[in-house]
Amino acid sequence: MIRVTNLRKQFVTKHGALAAVRGVAFEVKEGEIFMLLGPSGCGKTTTLRCIAGLEAPDEGEIWIGEQLVFADRGQKIVPVYKRGVGMVFQSYAIWPHLTVFENVAYPLVYGIFKAPKSEVRERVAKTLRLVGMERLEDRPAPLLSGGQQQRVALARALVYEPKVLLLDEPLSNLDAKLRAEMRVELRALMKRLNITAVYVTHDQEEALVLSDRIAVMHGGEIKQIGSPRDIYVRPENDVVAGFIGTANLLPASISTVPGNAREGLVSTPIGALVCSLPPSAAVGQAVTIMFRPEDVLVSVSGIGQSRNTFAGIVEQAVFVGSRFQCVISVNGLKIECELPKSQVVESGQNVAVEIPCHAIHLLP
Amino acid sequence: MPSVIPFVRRRARIATADALPLAFSWLVLAVVIFLLAFVLYMTFVPSLPTEPGFTLRHWSNVASSRLLTKVVPNTVIVGFGTICIAAFFALPLAWLLNRTTLPLRTTFTTMIGIVPVIPGFILAMGWIMLLDERIGLINNVAANLLGLSSLPLGVKDTPWGMAWVLGLVLTPPIFFLVAGPLCRIDPSLEEVAGVIGMKQLTTLRRVTLPLVWPGILGGLIYTFMTAVSIFEIPALLGAASGKVPVLASEIFYSVRPGGPLTATFAYGAAGVYGTLLAVPSLVGLYFYLRVLERTERYQVITGKGYRPRETDLGPLNWIGIGFVISYLVLAVALPLLVLLWASLMPVLQLPSREALSKLSFINYDSLLEGLGGIAVIWNTVVLVLCVSLLVSFFSFMVSWVVVRTRIRSRKLIDMLVMVPHAIPSLAFAFALAMLGILASRWLAWLPLSGTIGIIVIAHIINRMPYGTRVMNSALGQVHHELEEIAQVCGTKTPTVMRRIILPLVKPSVVYLAVWTAMLSFQEVTMALFLSGPQNHVLAVSIWELWESGSLGTAAAGAVAMVATMSALMFAILSVARGPTAGLVGRGVAEPPVAEEP
């Protein structure tokens, strides 16, 4: 439904050229919710604006549906108003001089999505029902709350039934509770309408909950594309591992590669670890190992005979309600881990830390 | 000019969406550039460009004895005298109304803001009636008291008299130029002075003044530029009779002979004088921009929220209020009152019981006829409406390009549109007049010379710098996503402008239209320069009535004009309540141009 290849865009500022997007490529299938996730300044919003036509890329091709909307360094460029996408901005961009009805009806009254007069009222009402705003039609826009503005912005983007919906951090201005509700509601709505969506966010939880696939961006490049579970469980590099969830990252080198067994030995600053190795592994190769805090096992009963177990001292233990978040010092290195709330630990306590073999991932 | 735009070679990729506003912007700028080039060109042709050949004669004639011994010295005296008078009033006013606890400060500030709406030549007329050696009321009173036949102190036929009236007229620009930085001085800077034990007066002298002097200097340079390029006030006060010629009057009478000075056309000479006026103005503008840069470097303005420290004058409040009121009396009340009095008298005389018995409306009865009939009223209405609408329209388009697009030439456009602010309006009027003459010879079908249209063009050029400042700040406040989402929703730029942006900036547009109409209504230099038998407007008619000696009728016209303006202003303000009225209030109190050159 959407195809982007080798997208490049740089901005010329007073201090020289700044490459915002450097060779981004991805494809979004029909009905898929595709997430561009990354820290601020990673080029995700610029990528989205290029798809919408609000920025002209320097290079690359963009297809929306069967239509080539940008190609060949701007030789072929379809203007914004002809691209037929729906869009929701972070600021909502609700026109303050119009009422809710007038805001949502605008695309149907002027421009290329113009509908017969008789249909406008009905279609606007239908869309407002869809987002749960049917009673507020005549309210002036400045009198809406943040959540209501967000719904109106969504209704305005959906009213002309675009095939593609572009969302630029639509939930980031809402308070935490409302945001959590809206995530679920938004996903259900988009799935019900079978709409193809590109969604930009810096909130990893939002990305995990809402999307079918995630592209993690960093420094203008896509670092990994995959399903939420793939991205979380099998990050391909340290940038992705570090950005999604909390990760313990240790520099390591491979010390033993067994003949036919898949488990080998790596040496790390906290000691030797047993873990599964890819077929390409070679002795002496430098790697980074990653494991999630929730996979670390902590016991107070002393070091047993289990593998990958080390002695450590609890440096910090924070109770966050559902669990304890701890920092444990092992051989002078800080390891983050999570403990069930039933397992009470105190700082200064001596503990045994086990990093299960299956929880360890090797990153290049 | 402040900085040169580095030209980056890159394929122009102007989206079709921007083509419309860009086309309108370059239309205006092309006229500006063309007219300036034309002024220079005129200095090298013998007479009209219809005649062949080039000459440097006009430039070599500059060294003529008359110019060097009379015109330039007079112009310099007028310029510096104006600065002295204006600074004498503006600097204390700025301090009193911004940094003290004087009562009624807001009202006074708004009143000073309204002064520029009152036509300068009307104030000059008032002052002539007050201080003329023969007919001046004050002179007569003083002479009676001292037992003299006449008092040798007059406002007429001396550059100092011109400086006095110009100074009163140009006090508001300096006031607002200084008020800006004065309001924004970080009080902690002054508090430090308090801590180390300086007295208040010492603080003012040693800390406050050095901090605002860039603003003061900028204001003074700007005032000098403006003062030497105003024609009508010096003309009334002695330049027209040829006794005190200044550069502005030289230009005028070179192109419009008929005064006692020149009986022949001297287009080339006028071009040279125009260039002579424009060059110091550009130099002044350059220094002014430098000063502005330094103001930023001084970091007087900090973003933190604070109130400037205000001095409580205590019992001295009365002196402060007295000073403010005396300025308003001298600049507005006294000249207007004497005009009102003169308009009710068959012959100007001192108020007395005998005079009161002669009060009559006879001057008003013949007013319409004297002004030139209904045609003049019609011309004025057409002029004011066209200028107001077109300035708003073109300012919107230019500001759209500057603020809302990323076209590479937008900074250049923004700078070029400011040029008419530095070039004397007379230079533009001169170029337009020449074009009008040429057009009537070569393109007879083009109605330019002697039409109301040529005055409209002159006024538009003159008001564009101010208009774009207002629109720049208005459009800058509209978030770009409001416009972008409208494009995503399937509408093109013209629709987005009409349905989204224009309604959002409506208060600013209305304010700009009203203010432009006011200033176009009272403008006389260009309108007079470009006037022919068919295109007289109200201000020109009053001026000519005065010149022809019909003082009473002229005074009646002036009173009618000021009354019309006040009535219109209050009517518009009460109709357009809410944000527009607030904006007009604020805009009058602090014109945007005062902030930027």
State the gist of this model.
The complex is a heterodimer of chains A (364) and B (597). Chain A is an alpha+beta fold and 364 residues long.
Tell me what the structure shows.
By secondary structure, chain A is α+β, with helices and mostly antiparallel strands. Chain A has two domains: 2-243, P-loop containing nucleotide triphosphate hydrolases (Rossmann fold); 248-363, RNA polymerase II/Efflux pump adaptor protein, barrel-sandwich hybrid domain (OB fold (Dihydrolipoamide Acetyltransferase, E2P)). Chain A is 23% helix and 37% strand. Chain A has a six-stranded mixed beta sheet with strand order 7-8-9-3-10-11, sandwiched between helices. A five-stranded antiparallel beta sheet of chain A has the order 2-1-4-5-6. Chain A has a five-stranded antiparallel beta sheet with strand order 14-13-12-15-21. In chain A, strand 1 and strand 2 (16-28) form a beta hairpin. Chain A is elongated, with a radius of gyration of 25 Å. In chain B, helix 3 runs parallel beside helix 7 (159-169) and helix 4 packs across helix 29. Chain B is mostly helical and 597 residues long. Classes of the chains: A alpha+beta (364), B mainly alpha (597). Chain A binds chain B through residues 12, 52-54, 56, 74, 77, 79-87, 89-91, 93, 95-97, 106-107, 110-113, 153, 156-157, 160, 166, and chain B through 8, 11, 13, 15-17, 479, 481-482, 484-492, 495, 499-500, 503-504.
